[in-house]
Every structure is written in C-alpha cells, then in structure tokens.
Design a protein that fits this description.
The chain is an alpha/beta fold. It has three domains: 101 residues, no CATH class; 258 residues, Phosphoenolpyruvate-binding domains (TIM Barrel, Alpha-Beta Barrel); 94 residues, Beta Barrel (M1 Pyruvate Kinase, Domain 3), CATH 2.40.33. It is built from 18 helices and 17 strands. It has an eight-stranded parallel beta barrel, surrounded by seven helices. A seven-stranded mixed sheet has the order 4-6-5-9-8-7-10. It has a two-stranded antiparallel ribbon with strand order 16-17. Helix 1 runs antiparallel to helix 4, helix 9 packs parallel to helix 10 and helix 11 packs parallel to helix 13. The radius of gyration is 25 Å and the shape is globular.
C-alpha cells in the first residue's frame, strides 16, 4: 500500500518482459560451460541440456521475479525442473501478448513443454518396469531371509502391492539370493505383472565387529570415551571400558583429531581425541536419551574423514557372478565420484554376457556424492537404465539430521531436471513396518514420497500391512500431486 492507501500501479508488461528475456539469456550463457563439463562424460541430449539450464537458473535468487510474475497470474517458475527454457519461453510469449507486441520467443508446443516429464516416465519404466495402473510411484520392499525359504511370503507381498524386490547382498548368500529372485519371478507370474529385482552390493561398509563393554551393562553417554581399534581382540582400560574393533582396519589410521564419528545411524556422535598405533580414542558429544549400547555389526559414519576406499570390494566382485544372473538392476553403495561409475562398468563387463544389461542405481550416501550428483548423472547416462537412491539413513549420519530434509528435496529436483528416476529410501513407515501401527509423522513423510518414482520399505514383522497402506496412500496422492505441482482434483470432504 502507498501512503495514501492506494495500491501501487502495476509495472509495465514491457519492463517485466525485458527482465525475463535477460534472465533467459543469462541462463543460456551460464549453462554453456556447465554443459561442456557434463558432456566430457557422455553424449549430448535434451535432459543434460535441461540439467545445465536448471543448475544455472538455480544459482540466482528468483524470489523477487517470482512475485512480480505471480501478480499477473503467470507461472512463478516454481515447477520448472523438467522444462527450464520451455517455461521461460511460455512466460515470455504471455508477457509479449500482454504488452501487445510480437513475442521474441515462440511459445512451446504441448509436446515440447512436457517432453521432460515423458522422458522421465520412460526412464522409470526402463529401470523399474511399468507401474500399476492406479499409481505412478513404485513400491520397493527389502526382502528378509525368510523370502528365500517361503515363496508364499513373496506372493503375499506381490498381491499387496510390491513392484520391486530388493535383495541386500550384505546378508545371506548366493543360494538364498537365487531362491529369492526365483520366488519374485514366480510371484510376478501369479499376479499377472512383471516384478523386478534390485540387488545391492555391500560395498566397503564400516561397522563395529567385536566389542567390549563394562560388565554392569553401562551404556555410552555424553562425556564418555570409547576406543576404535584396527585389529586384535577389543581391550579396555580402567578409564575407557568401551572398545570396538572396526571392520575395515585401515580406516582407524585415517582418522584425525577433531574428526566426527557417528554410530548406529547417528544414535551417537563423538569426536576423535587422539590416534596412535592402530587405536583411536573417541569422546561422546551426543547420544540418545538414556545412552547407547555399544554392539557389534553396527554402522560407523565418518563425515570428516577422507576414506580413500574403492566402492567395490573383493566380496562385491565375487557377488557380481550371482547378481548378473538374478537381478534386473544393481544398487551401488558408497558411489562418490564419476570415476566410481567407471569402476562398476568395468566390473560388470567382466561378468555380463550377451546384450542384457543390468539397470544401475547410485545410492547417494555421502556428502561427496551429493556435491557430485550432476557429474554422476552425466557419467552414467546412456550406458544402461539409471536411477538414484536417496539413502536417507547413511546420508543423515554423514551430513547431519538437520540437513536431510533440505538435501532430499534438492536431489529430487536435480533428478527431475535430468529425467533420472529417484528412489525415496530409509525409514519409510518404519513404525508401521515394525509394530503394525504408524506414527502420524511417518504417514506424512510417506505421502511426500509420492514425488519420487519409487519408495522403499524395509523389512519388518508388519511389512505386508505397510505395503497395503502405502499402496493406498500413493494412489490417493497421485490424484493430488505430481512432483512439486498440485493437481487440483475435485474435493469431496466439503
């Protein structure tokens, strides 16, 4: 409002048109070197061009321009991930018409405007298989060991809504994996639709092995210290009674004073105080209320430490013999740099036969992978069906819980801009899976997961109920939301 109580006059359409034209020119100019860098790894294509344009435009603060466009009832540019230049061109054409002059940019056709959506849908079909008719988002289930010996259990999951079965190669063995895969194929035949199999190779997961704790069962709490040791039996001293052997011995000597150590999905965080002779002393800074038990086979995350590890281990190389014969796609843990994709391609080339190529899912678990996501996408593009898993468990332990929500949103946007299918993973409906009763917050989280092309549920006693619940929820959300865009079906509650 002005001082006189009057609404200020709308700026001229010509001024706003010129500002949007200037923005388009700036985006194309800024995107050119980014696209050149991305193309070092692959061949040209509209999805990579759009990714470069999206990266360029998101380096600017568009909020003032958005409000100016919204005032005219035009696109606020808030839903342009899959169509950066077409969105700008549509706005330019509309503003030119409002200004009463010919448009300097032709308005995009319907096919051109929605081409990114079509390419993303085709990429998701190629990776996961076609979705069911009543929802766009697939449901992936992590199979428990029971699935190897109980084919009826797998049939039940398929009947309730499972589209993709995940086999974690960190557990069980080749015979069990083959049995699980066979049961998934037969279940697909029984329910009359193709079910696909993702097999996760374990990668260099850092875990506790043997542990030593006080005989009184005391837990670790803030202010306590514990030792991480490279090898030998765990040992304690009077002032430090907690000790754990690390699954990858070389990691201990890569730690430095000040490095953070997160244990068991971030239930505890400590800081390295000293490192010597294959031992690291860690002081607990944070721990969940009531303390944390030091146990074997629990994950360790080292967000400040240069691990220097190959994402493919000797075990993974051996497991690939089974994976290429059983899976439709391979989950790649701890991928961080574009060169890591070349390592996987080389390993697969030693085992794949014929024209059949496995799909490939890059699991984004470390800060380096987040930072390098555009480069990872470019390197993987065109070689085989490709997708990204937003692995929120390890990612939260690496970057901190406070940033996970922000990062998962940004990764969804980058994937959409590049027409790459995304998997929303870790702790989806976890209370429901474990107890049969969901929390209110996790139902909201699961509803927001409908923006991904696939949602992963973990194993648990009530996973069948969780599949049914998620199937219904995703179908309802499909009527309300596509990615970031609300879809305004008629409301019937009022």
């Amino acid at each position: 409002m002005t001082n006189g109580g009057e609404t200020p006059a709308l700026e001229s359409d010509e001024v706003l048109l010129n500002d949007v034209l200037a923005l388009r020119r700036a985006v194309v100019e800024a995107a050119a070197p980014m696209l050149t860098e991305l193309l070092r790894s692959t061949v040209p294509g509209p999805c990579l061009e759009n990714l470069a344009h999206y990266l360029a435009i998101r380096r600017q603060d568009l909020r003032p321009l958005q409000r100016r466009l919204m005032q005219r009832g035009l696109s606020s540019l808030g839903h342009m991930e899959s169509r950066v230049l077409p969105t700008l061109d549509a706005v330019i054409a509309a503003l030119a018409a409002m200004a009463g002059r010919p448009s300097p940019r032709p308005a995009p056709t319907e096919d051109a405007f929605f081409a990114g959506e079509a390419e993303l849908a085709a990429a998701a079909d190629a990776l996961f298989g076609a979705p069911p008719a009543h929802r766009r988002t697939r449901i992936m289930i992590t199979l428990p060991s029971q699935a190897a010996s109980d084919p009826d259990f797998v049939v039940s999951l398929a009947q309730r809504g499972m589209d993709v079965a995940r086999i974690n190669c960190a557990h069980d063995g080749a015979a069990a994996w083959r049995a699980m895969s066979d049961h998934v194929r037969r279940s697909g035949d029984l329910v009359g639709r193709r079910l696909t199999v993702l097999m996760d190779i374990a990668g260099p997961k850092i875990r506790t092995e043997d542990v030593l704790v006080p005989s009184d069962g005391r837990k670790l709490a803030p202010g306590d210290a514990f030792r991480l040791i490279a090898q030998g039996p765990p040992r304690s001293t009077g002032d430090v009674p907690f000790c754990a052997v690390v699954s990858l011995p070389e990691i201990v000597n890569r730690l430095s004073p000040g490095d953070r150590v997160r244990y068991n999905d971030g239930k505890l965080e400590g800081v390295v105080e000293s490192v010597a002779d294959g031992e690291a002393l860690v002081r607990v800074r944070y721990a969940k209320s009531g303390g944390v038990k030091l146990k074997p086979e629990k994950g360790l995350n080292l967000p400040d430490t240069d691990l220097g590890l190959s994402p493919i281990t000797t075990k993974d190389e051996g497991d690939l013999v089974t994976v290429v014969g059983c899976a439709d796609m391979i989950g790649y843990s701890f991928v961080s740099r574009p060169d890591d994709i070349d390592l996987l391609e080389a390993a697969l080339s030693r085992h794949e036969a014929g024209d059949r190529k496995l799909g490939f899912v890059a699991k984004i678990e470390r800060p380096e992978a987040v930072a390098n996501l555009p480069g990872l996408i470019a390197r993987a593009r065109g070689r085989r069906p490709f997708g990204v898993m937003i692995a929120r468990g390890d990612l939260a332990a690496e970057i901190g819980f406070a940033r996970v929500a922000e990062m998962q949103e940004e990764m969804l946007w980058i994937c959409e801009a590049a027409s790459v299918p995304a998997i929303w993973a870790t702790q989806v409906l976890e209370d429901l899976v474990r107890t049969g009763i969901p929390s209110r917050g996790e139902m909201t989280d699961a509803a927001m997961a409908a923006r991904a092309e696939c949602v992963m549920l973990n194993k648990g006693p009530a996973v069948g109920i969780a599949v049914e619940t998620l199937d219904r929820l995703l179908a309802r959300m499909d009527a309300h939301l596509f990615k970031k865009t609300p879809t305004l079906r008629a409301l019937k509650s009022w």
